[in-house]
Structure formats: C-alpha cells, structure tokens
Backbone:
C-alpha cells in the first residue's frame, strides 16, 4: 500500500450535463479530499467536455476516486497521471500600480527575467501575465510583492498527457461504436 | 448548458400521440415501462401528475402512503420482492426531502428505483419559492443518476433513461425532478424504451483470462470458500450459482443481502457472514486458501478489521461494478462481469472435488456454535422468551415459503440468522444503511409486489415507531402484511452495545412504549399479544393462517443479547460466542 501523498492530475471526459460538476466534486468531498484545482473546458472531441482536476493524494485513493468518477452515467472516461506523465501549466495574473513602473526599471527587469509579460498597461495599474508551474508563478509573486500587488489570481492546472494519444483516442472509438444518439 | 438531446421523431410508432400534457406523458411513459403500481404522496408541485393518474387508475395503481419515507421504502420492498423497478412520487420541498433516507438506502443496497418529484415552475427556480428545495443537488450523492425536466418535450427521454439506468448494470435509484410548468405543457408524445447510453457501460466485458485464472486457482485450492451477496439475486443468477458451488463442493456463506439466493437447507450453505453471523463462516474466512467473493462488496460489517481479514487467502472477486474491485479487499483475481454470465464460464472449468475434510471444519464450528448459542436461543431453558424461538416456530408455520422483511436491530440479526428460506428474493432487509423504519413500509411494498406470497414483517419496538403510520396504508390497500413485533422495550441493539462496551450505562435506550395492541386496533388490524411461551405456538398459527393482515406482538426478554459477535474493530477470527 502506497501511503505517500503525491501530485496527481485527473482528466475526465464527459457529456455536457447540468449537475455533473456537482456529481464529480461530491466524490471528493465524500472522502474529504481537497481539490487543489478544477478546470472545465471543451475537449478535442466535438460536444465532449473535459475536467482537469489537481489533487495531492495517495495513489491508492486516486485509483478509487477515478473508478468512482468513471462509474457516473455521463462520464465517458476518467484517467489519472503522475506529475511526470503530463505537460502542465497554470496561468497567473498580477496587478500592480502603474507608478511602481515609472519609479524605475526594476519591475521591467523582473518581468523579463521571469519570462512574463505585460498584458495591459493602464493609467492606474498594469497587469502582468505569467504561465508556468506553480513554483514559477509563486517566484514571480515573491519578487513583485515588495512593490505591492493589488490583485493576484492563478488559474487551475491544465495539463495534457505525455503520450502521443491522450485519453480522447479511446473515447472517439467508443463514440464511433455506439450507434445510439443518446 | 445542454439539456437531453432529443432523438429524431420521424417514425410514427403506435405510441405516438399528439399534444398531451407533460403530466399525462409521465403516466403513459410509466405504463410503457411496465409499471402497474406506484407509491406516493401528493402536493402542490406534483398535482398535475396526480390529476393525470386519475384517468389511469385501471392500469396504474397509486398507493397513498402516510409519509413519503413510507413511499420510498415501499417501493424498495416492492422491487426487492418482484425484481422490478420500484416507483415513487412526491411533491417538491418536504415531500422530496422525505424520500432522501430511502434513496440513500436504495443506493447502498443497489435497489432499482425511479423517483419522480414535482418542482416549482421553472421561472421560479432559484427564487426560494414556496416548497422549493434543490432536490437535484441534495440527491446527487445518493442517486445513480438524476435529472431535472423543465420542458415537457424532455419527458419521454428522461423517463426512458431513468428506467434503463435504474435497472441495468449495478442497479440503483434514479430521481427525475419535474417542474410544474413542464407538467402542464403540451408535447407530441413518442415513447421509445432506452437501450443504451453512449457514456454508460452497463456491465464490463468479460475477460476470459480472468475466468481461466479463477478456475485454475479454485481447482488448485485445498480450502476454497465462497462468500456471496445480493449480486446473485440482482443478476437472477441463483441457478448458475448453485451449479457453481455444487460442481466443486464449495462451502458458501452469505451476507444478509445475499440471504435466500440459495435455499437455507442446502448442504453447501454454511451460514451467515459478519458481525452477528455464524461462527464457522467468520472464523474460517481466515483459514481458507482461496476466497471467492460473488456479488458482494466487503462491507465492514462483514469483514471486521480489514488488516485481519483473509490475509492468508488468494482472493477472487466476481463483480459487475469495477469500482468495487480493490475498494476494501485486494482481489488477486478480479472477475469482472455479470454473474449470470461469468458463473457458468467458471463452472465449466471446475473439476469435481469432494472436500470432505474442509466441509467438516464448517460442521464442527456449527456444532460448537449450536451447543454454545443456538440451542439455548431456539429452545430456551428459562421462562424468558427469546427472539430466536419465535423465529424457529415461525419457520414451522411458514415452511420457509414466506418473504421475511425485517427492520433494523437485534430482531433483524436474529431473523436473518434463523429464518429459513426455500426461494430467492425472500429476505428483504436494510443492509448497507441500516435504516430503522424500513421494515413496515418495505413489507407493504413486498406484499403488493408478490401478492401470492406470505409476507412477514419482523420489527422491533423502536423501528416500528419510526414508520408506524403505514399501518394505515396497509389497511387502505388491504395488503396482507403480517407484522411480527418483537418487543423488548428497548432499542435492543444499542442497549447490547452499551452493556458490552459502555459499562451497562443504558443512556436513552429504554422505552416506555405505547399500548401497541390498542394502536394496532386503532389501525383496524386483527391483533394478538404473547407474553408466555405456552401461547406462542397457537398465536403464530393464527398469525399465519388468518387471511390478510395481522399484528402479533411478542414480549421477549428485555436484556437478551445477540451472539455470536465480532466486536467492531476486531478481526473476523475474534468472533465471540458469549
Ligand atoms: C434511523 C436510525 N436511527 C438510529 C439507528 C441506530 N440503531 C440501530 S439498531 C437500534 C435499535 C433498534 O431498536 P428496536 O427497533 O427496538 O430493535 P431491537 O434492536 O430492540 O430488536 C438503533 C437505535 C438506526 N439504525 N437507524
Ligand atoms: Mg427493541
């Protein structure tokens, strides 16, 4: 039994149905598992939605949860990946006062060094955008903090599998096989 | 977001009707699904459906219960006795929330149900309208599927999917919430039964490698042991199961939901598993070399401490639900699939074996349990009546042909331990959830679902008072429910725990009860009460032989205990005989 908790990404391909988000999250809450992030979006297959869920849990627990998710009527497929098995990204936005920019070149240097960019520059504030791992967006946060961050947000993790064909491959086959339109 | 995709409606089947109301469409859809009885309770948000029911009384009987919890448990009892989908109806808000306990019970015990709830009109959704409750949200964790209908045109597909999902694969409860405006709206009604849903796999495909590996393990086993559950009954695989155990002389023990899948008198039926199960079946779990689990889910009431459960054994798990594999007990050889199909494949490959030595171990344990527990429970030597002797004489009167429905508590354990069964679908009990109040309404449903069988409701004085109002429904429907109240004037099971594990501190378990005889008379039941042993035999004869419903109360020992017992947190081999 593996008792060490580690980072996992769970991907879920679903029909687009009201209430399904709730149905999936209760599977976690029932087991008191914290969802670090949850992103829903379209998938590569027309009409099929996708959840990307980030958790830190034991592998054993993740396997059980994924099976419970896959059991739901409107779920086509659920899979889980270790950190190394996905290419992942998060997006962070940082809002700072425009005057911190005009007071010197420090901010511009930081932004450049972190491979971030200015998303918009307004009269009162600027918004910096940075994509990357959590530790990278956090590092930028730490550097900007002394200058005063007025607002900060980081998106949930999005990730794709590190294999030629993602889980969608099986689903396309499944959809082809099912003649029914329900 | 999208609603249910509608199918093209080009082919005009005989069920095509133009412009009927949503409410009528629901009733017609139920009829097309073969529903001839529904349990429910009316109210504002479901009134159009009740109005439609009025015109279909000849084809669809509606049973007016006295509390929605009664409706859902009756639907469960109906389903468990008949093998069909149970249907219940309730209004929005409190009507719907009163169903929740039973839905949770049906979910954990895999009972196929379709619950239809009324909802406030769609334009009022989210406004905290009168009797608005988020029933979809509340029921998500306890339903196999649920769906809110806000347009009449969604009704045919929603209902057909509901029935398909409820009854297929591992069955379970489904809830359809229908706004009042959708019930009034008109639609072109075309009904087609649902046979597949692209995102839903009813049952996993059978893998022959698993079958072969399992057969090999059983053929090589010296002490193989079968533990089985309700999966056999749900798959209607009773014959296949019997052939399987007989082929290789496999001793088989049951969970309380598996009880009656094979007759109690069968020589390979070695008894009951779990906390108050039989001695041998528990002890020998830790002596077998191959443990074959069939259609059961290793509930903790069955396994006790998992760290001390069958650690020596190679585990084979026959199961329809992939999520059950390795959930509690690691399966060395999972055999996924519908037991009705996997069992014969396995049986074909089994060598005939005698296994006298191994079977003798069960007989020896049984003898020991008999001497230490069963003998005194069934034939007590002091004057205090035991629950066991009541069940023993009941067996004589029913000949093992009755459906026994129990509530939850000591009487449940005693009934399951000692009741005899010749036919499947005959033991109806709340297993996974242990819902007090289940028994009486479930017995009502069972009596209506199996009208030609004798239905006995074994109930405690605590649990009876949770749903006693359904005696009125029994009277109104003239259902032939025989209520056997085992009155110990205690919440007996809790009191037993207090005695054994809480220093006899009987905190809030003793009850000063109403006069049950007067109450039953008030509900117009023929009644009788037994206080002494010499009355018991005749009273049980009258109980069974009197045509129709009957209420028999037996005053049993106030502080009797159920043994054997695997104390909670202990291993199965630590089973106590006293
Ligand atoms: C709804 C509900 N509440 C509480 C319990 C906990 N409980 C389990 S058995 C029991 C006592 C049952 O008493 P009674 O119905 O008199 O049956 P007895 O054990 O005396 O045979 C209780 C309170 C339960 N199972 N269900
Ligand atoms: Mg009692």
Residues:
């Amino acid at each position: 039994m593996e008792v060490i908790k580690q980072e996992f990404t769970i991907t879920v391909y679903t029909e687009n149905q009201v209430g399904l988000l709730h149905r999936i999250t209760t599977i976690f809450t029932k087991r008191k598992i914290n969802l670090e992030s949850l992103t829903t979006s379209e998938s590569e297959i027309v009409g099929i939605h996708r959840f990307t869920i980030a958790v830190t849990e034991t592998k054993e627990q993740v396997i059980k949860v994924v099976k419970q998710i896959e059991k739901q009527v409107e779920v086509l497929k659920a899979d889980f990946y270790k950190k190394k098995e996905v290419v992942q990204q998060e997006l962070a936005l940082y809002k700072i006062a425009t005057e911190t920019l005009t007071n010197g070149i420090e901010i511009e240097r930081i932004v450049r060094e972190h491979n971030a960019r200015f998303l918009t520059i307004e009269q009162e504030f600027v918004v910096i955008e940075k994509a990357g791992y959590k530790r990278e967006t956090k590092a930028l946060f730490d550097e900007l903090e002394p200058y005063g961050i007025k607002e900060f947000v980081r998106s949930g993790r999005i990730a794709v599998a590190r294999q030629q064909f993602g889980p969608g491959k099986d689903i396309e086959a499944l959809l082809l096989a099912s003649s029914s339109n329900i | 977001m999208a609603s249910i995709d509608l199918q093209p409606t080009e082919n005009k089947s005989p069920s095509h009707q133009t412009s009927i109301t949503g409410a009528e469409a629901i009733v017609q859809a139920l009829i097309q699904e073969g529903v001839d009885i529904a349990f429910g309770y009316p109210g504002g948000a479901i009134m159009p459906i009740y109005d439609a029911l009025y015109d279909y009384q000849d084809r669809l009987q509606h049973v007016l219960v006295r509390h929605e919890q009664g409706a859902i448990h009756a639907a469960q009892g109906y389903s468990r006795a008949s093998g069909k989908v149970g249907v219940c109806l309730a209004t929005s808000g409190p009507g719907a929330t009163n169903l929740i306990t039973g839905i949770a019970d049906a979910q954990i015990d895999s009972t196929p149900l379709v619950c239809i709830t009324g909802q406030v009109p769609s334009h009022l959704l989210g406004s905290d309208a009168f009797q608005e409750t988020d029933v979809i949200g509340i029921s998500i964790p306890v339903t196999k599927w649920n769906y809110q209908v806000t347009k009449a045109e969604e009704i045919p597909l929603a209902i057909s999917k509901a029935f398909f999902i409820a009854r297929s694969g591992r069955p379970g409860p489904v809830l359809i919430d229908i706004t009042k405006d959708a019930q009034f709206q008109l639609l072109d009604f075309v009904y087609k039964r649902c046979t597949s849903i692209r995102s839903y796999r009813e049952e996993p495909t059978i893998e022959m490698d698993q079958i072969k590996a399992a057969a090999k393990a059983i053929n090589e086993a010296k002490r193989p042991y079968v533990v089985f559950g309700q999966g056999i009954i749900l798959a209607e695989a009773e014959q296949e199961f019997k052939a399987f155990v007989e082929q290789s002389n496999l001793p088989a023990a049951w969970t309380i939901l598996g009880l009656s899948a094979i007759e109690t008198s069968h020589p390979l039926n070695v008894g009951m598993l779990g906390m108050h199960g039989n001695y041998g079946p528990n002890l020998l779990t830790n002596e077998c070399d191959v443990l074959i689990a069939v259609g059961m889910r290793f509930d903790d009431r069955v396994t006790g401490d998992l760290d001390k459960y069958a650690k020596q054994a190679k585990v084979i798990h026959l199961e329809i639900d992939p999520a059950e594999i390795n959930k509690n007990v690691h399966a060395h050889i999972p055999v996924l699939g519908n037991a009705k199909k996997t069992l014969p494949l396995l049986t074909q490959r089994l060598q005939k074996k005698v296994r006298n030595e191994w079977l003798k171990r069960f007989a020896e344990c049984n003898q020991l349990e008999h001497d230490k527990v069963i003998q005194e429970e069934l034939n007590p030597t002091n004057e205090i009546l035991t629950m066991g002797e009541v069940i023993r004489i009941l067996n004589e009167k029913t000949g093992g042909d009755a459906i026994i429905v129990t509530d939850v508590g000591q009487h449940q354990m005693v009934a399951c331990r000692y009741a005899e069964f010749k036919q499947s679908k005959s033991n109806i009990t709340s297993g996974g959830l242990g819902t007090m109040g289940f028994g009486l309404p479930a017995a009502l449903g069972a009596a209506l679902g199996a009208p030609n069988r004798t239905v006995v409701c074994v109930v405690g004085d605590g649990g009876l008072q949770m749903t006693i109002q359904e005696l009125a429904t029994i009277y109104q429907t003239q259902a032939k429910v025989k209520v056997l109240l085992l009155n110990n004037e205690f919440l007996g099971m809790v009191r037993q725990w207090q005695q054994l594990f809480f220093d006899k501190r009987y905190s809030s378990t003793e009850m000063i009860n109403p006069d049950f005889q007067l109450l039953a008379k008030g509900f117009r039941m023929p009644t009788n009460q037994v206080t002494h042993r010499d009355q018991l035999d005749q009273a049980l004869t009258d109980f069974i032989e009197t045509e129709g419903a009957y209420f028999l109360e037996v005053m049993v020992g106030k502080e009797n205990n159920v043994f054997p017992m695997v104390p909670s947190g202990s291993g199965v081999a630590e089973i106590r005989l006293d």
Notes: The pocket of magnesium ion (ligand 2) is lined by residues B 409, 460-462, 488, 490-492 (CB under 6 Å). Chain B has 23 helices and 20 strands. The radius of gyration of chain B is 24 Å. Residues 5-12 of chain B have pLDDT under 50 and may be disordered.
